[in-house]
Structures are given as structure tokens and as C-alpha cells.
Design brief:
Elements: E1 10-14, E2 35-36, E3 39-40, H1 41-51, E4 56-61, H2 66-72, H3 76-85, H4 88-93, E5 102-107, H5 114-119, H6 122-125, E6 130-133, E7 137-140, H7 147-158, E8 162-168, E9 178-182, E10 189-197, E11 208-216, H8 219-225, H9 237-246, E12 251-255, E13 261-264, H10 268-280, H11 286-297
Parallel strand pairs: 1-4, 1-6, 4-5, 8-12
Antiparallel strand pairs: 2-3, 6-11, 7-13, 8-11, 9-10, 10-12
Helix pairs in contact: 8-9
Length: 298
């Protein structure tokens, strides 16, 4: 692991969203705990952060989110039962809760926007550079360096105030996302001059959409403090990033590579795709599922 990655050890994971687009399944279950293959969605985000050297994680929770806390708690009683039964394979599957990652929790009591959720991490992050990873978006990386590795490295090398992951999307899909305005020729890494949240159809300044991963320097908290409520009366992270830009701060983007893919777990269409893709990749059951689908669709 490059030494530069060791300088960033903290992450804020907002998981307080209501998940209304996934009702009724999310009425009593956090969307972040929906299964994607063999794991709940939020476990993939935590493992992505751990692979980038993050060991201190603050989850910003809300009502009906205690299942997330339970999932990452060690369970000595369950381990004892599995040990007594000789279920070593199942014991290995529980190792994610037994490593040296420290989990912290803070509650967002009212739905006041994703910017407000990040602001709740101020005391936890202090003066440190930190990562923000939204708990309903999985990014699958196949290369030697994940997009998060490249973001942290870029952020530190360029002394940016904010570094954002972006993905190329079809022009007709741009109104669904926050879209960036490049300030220089687009490459694997580039600075931006502005961003537009959910632009009207046909007005998007680029096809580069924000992909739910950020690296921030601590000045983002001052920007959030002066960010007025936006759409829905809530504080939005995109508006705070625009304040950084107006202050002359550097905001950099890192693009997802061809072998990387983002899965949005916030709606049924994308969730179904995520489940199928991860299930097909399962070493034990993927082949059987593939055969089933071929018979079903043939």
C-alpha cells in the first residue's frame, strides 16, 4: 500500500436516508442492509474503505437503522455456537466484524440533507482529511488501485480542498445526478470550476456525474456552516462544494476507470442489477444462477 494512503484514516458514511424509493421493503429495514449477493450493501462500502487504509469510520444513522450497528458488532455467542458445531466456513464469513476497524455512530435525528449528515462528523474528523462514502452506493473496482486509492493520492498531491469521484453517464441520464463543469481538459484527474445538481434535460455541462465518493479537507465544515438550505429546505453537500469553489479552493475530480462500476442501491432497477451482477460473480452459486437464468430466458 502506498505510504500516502496511510495519512487518511477516517471516513464518514451517511446512512440515515429513508429509502422511500424502495418502499415497502425499507419500511422496517435500512436500504443499506439490503442483500447484494451474500452481503448487505453497506458491508461492501466498509470493505472498500478498509482496502484504502481507512480504520476509523463514523456512520451517520437515523431512525430504524440499528440493524447496521448490530451487523458490525462482534457476536461472541454466535461465534461460540458455530465453533461448537464445527462450522469453520461460516466462522470465516464473520471475520469482517473481528478486525481492527473502529466504528462510531452519530444520529441525524431529522432529515436535513446530506450536507447536514456530513457536518455531524466535525468533531470526529477534527483537522484531518477524511473520506465520505454514501452507504447506498457500491463501487466495484477490479484494478490494482481502486478509485478511492486514486482519490486519496490525488487529494494529497494536489492539496485539494475536495476531491470527487465521477463517472461518465449517458446524456439522457444526466438530470438524475450532480454533474461537474471541468476547468481543464478531462483526464483521469482534472479540476472543476462548478457543478450543477440535477440539470434540466439538455442543459448538462458535461456527462460526468458525481459518483458518491469524496475526499475532504476540514475546510468543508466551514463551508457547510454557511451553506443555506436548498431544495426541500435541506443542506446539500453539492452547495457546500460550490462555496469552496467560490472561495477559490481547489476541487478535483477522479474518473472511474473502464473496469469500475457504480451501483446505486437507492432504487429498484439499479438494486436488481447489483444483486444479479454480484450473485453471478459468486464463486459457489454464480454458475448455478447463470444456468437458471439461461433456462428462464431461453
Amino acid at each position: 500500500m502506498p505510504s500516502s494512503l496511510n495519512q487518511v484514516r477516517k471516513a464518514v458514511i451517511p446512512v440515515a436516508g429513508l429509502g422511500t424509493r424502495l418502499l415497502p421493503v425499507t419500511k422496517s429495514q435500512p436500504k443499506e442492509m439490503l442483500p447484494v449477493g451474500r452481503k448487505p450493501a453497506v458491508q461492501y462500502i466498509v470493505e472498500e474503505l478498509e482496502a484504502a487504509g481507512i480504520r476509523d469510520m463514523l456512520l451517520v444513522t437515523g431512525r430504524k437503522k440499528t440493524a447496521i450497528e448490530d451487523h458490525f458488532d462482534p457476536d461472541p455467542e454466535l461465534r461460540q455456537r458455530l465453533t461448537a458445531a464445527g462450522n469453520t466456513d461460516l466462522l470465516e464469513l464473520l471475520n469482517f466484524a473481528e478486525n481492527d476497524t473502529a466504528f462510531y455512530y452519530v444520529r441525524q435525528s431529522t432529515q436535513s440533507g446530506n450536507g447536514d449528515a456530513v457536518r455531524l462528523g466535525r468533531r470526529f474528523c477534527g483537522d484531518d482529511v477524511f473520506v465520505v462514502a454514501f452507504g447506498d452506493s457500491i463501487i466495484k473496482s477490479n484494478g490494482r488501485k481502486s478509485v478511492l486509492d486514486r482519490m486519496i493520492e490525488t487529494h494529497l498531491l494536489r492539496h485539494s480542498s475536495c476531491t470527487v469521484a465521477v463517472e461518465r453517464v449517458p446524456e439522457e441520464d444526466a438530470p438524475k445526478y450532480g454533474v461537474v463543469v471541468p476547468a481543464e481538459p478531462v483526464d483521469e484527474r482534472f479540476d472543476i470550476s462548478d457543478l450543477v445538481e440535477k440539470p434540466a434535460r439538455g442543459t448538462a455541462p458535461s456527462n460526468l456525474a458525481i459518483a458518491a465518493r469524496y475526499v475532504f479537507s476540514p475546510e468543508i465544515f466551514d463551508a457547510l456552516d454557511v451553506t443555506p438550505p436548498g431544495k426541500g429546505g435541506e443542506v446539500w453537500l453539492a452547495d457546500a462544494i460550490r462555496i469552496l469553489l467560490k472561495q477559490g479552493r481547489r476541487v478535483t475530480c477522479v474518473t472511474l476507470n473502464e473496469g469500475e462500476q457504480r451501483y446505486d442501491i437507492g432504487n429498484f432497477e439499479s438494486y436488481y442489477r447489483a444483486f444479479v451482477d454480484f450473485a453471478l460473480a459468486d464463486e459457489r452459486y454464480g454458475y448455478l444462477l447463470r444456468q437458471y437464468l439461461m433456462r428462464k430466458l431461453g
